[in-house]
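Annual report, structural modelling task.

Input specification for the flavin-adenine dinucleotide complex:
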Amino acid sequence: MKILVLGAGVAGIAAAWYLRQDGHEVTVLERNDAVALETSFANGGQLSYSYVAPLASPSVIPKIPPWLMRRDSPLKFVPEWSAAQWRWILAFLAACNQRQSELTTERLLRLAFYSRRMMHELVAQHALDFDYVRNGKLVVHTDARAFESAKRLVDYQRGLGAEQEALDAARTIEVEPALSSMKRRIAGAIYTPSEDAGDCFKFANELTRLMTMGANAVRLRFGVAVQRLLAIGRRVAGVETNQGVFEADRYVLALGTSAPAIVKPLGIRIPVYPLKGYSLTLPIVNDAAAPRISVTDYQRKVVYARLGSELRVAGMADLAGRTATIDTERVGQLVEEVRSTFPEASDFSRLQPWCGMRPATPRGTPILGATPYSNLLLDAGHGALGFTLALGTGRVLADIVNGRKPEVPLDGFRLDD
Ligand SMILES: Cc1cc2nc3c(=O)[nH]c(=O)nc-3n(C[C@H](O)[C@H](O)[C@H](O)COP(=O)(O)OP(=O)(O)OC[C@H]3O[C@@H](n4cnc5c(N)ncnc54)[C@H](O)[C@@H]3O)c2cc1C
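The model returned the following structure:
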């Protein structure tokens, strides 16, 4: 079958990878001149298979007012005259209940564990150079009450197959000595040995390198901006772009935060809204002072990963419009976080700041598969977990295209769920 994948972020590239394996003739259309230059470029690097609990939970509600009042809070909100923003917020608040939050966690855990299996199979079969490590993850708590509730979540997730352990402060430092400067603030940590990390941009480029070689190579068309889907009845007949019309038998839409605007004229509304986040990439100059294990500062919602010889730091969730412009104040706040957590690890004069737009859905679940148009499939809304989930969602998409039953139940991931 001839398949067009729209968008060469990590989601589109992973889908193209599995579609090619099934023998399809795959072309990826991308407006930039290379793959993974937007949200998949410099994200937190966490392959966070056991940390998928959504932002939308009852515990987040009491935190919102103090977060909104502090300039340096992990979450920022700039109200807009935008129906899409308010619709998203209302749907988010509606999802902040125990039942929905647990259901979402359960669904995402299944998809994440499946993605982990896909990743482990992939790296066992191919030599991929993307600073990949299986180093585990420590979620560090500085608030005793939050740590107690994290322990309860560990118990809940154990029943769903997650292997995690609660550590006291001393044991936390034993597991990750680079956290010693934070020692007096640590209430405890949750340790998950089975988490991975890697560089998402390099990963997408490595998959691209492999799938554009050999027989039945995937074709990438750069500088092609999708403008409109052309529909005849309930089928997509082509994609209108700045470089003419492209046609295929099936269309997989993996356009990140641009997805809603492209499907809206077809009468499809997808609740994806950009949640802006920031990252810093810093050269490691003091090996012992930089973490080996991926670390999350739970209270500050900042993640740290060692990627090769660099430290990647990421955080912030700003509901603040659609432009990916860097706010230097937010970058300064992230720098302060690193200075207080790993003060000796990096050369701060050489830091590279970045911001990206998470394609977030209110519940935190991606939207996968069928639309009212028989040959148009969605692979959108990966939110804060796109790197973690990309292989799983890519494989699910390929299964749907081939009429196979996906190994992960689609409940909660469909357009109308
Ligand atoms: C600060 C930050 C930290 C993060 N940390 C992590 C992490 O640690 N672990 C994790 O799993 N996830 C993380 N994420 C989330 C992850 O980065 C995203 O979920 C993921 O990159 C989304 O991938 P995507 O392919 O859907 O979107 P994108 O990467 O944005 O790809 C969409 C592609 O479509 C192209 N496109 C858009 N419109 C058009 C058009 N009209 N025509 C042609 N091409 C078009 C874009 O150019 C882009 O290349 C983080 C995100 C941020 C912002």
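The CA atoms of residues 17 and 375 lie 19 Å apart.
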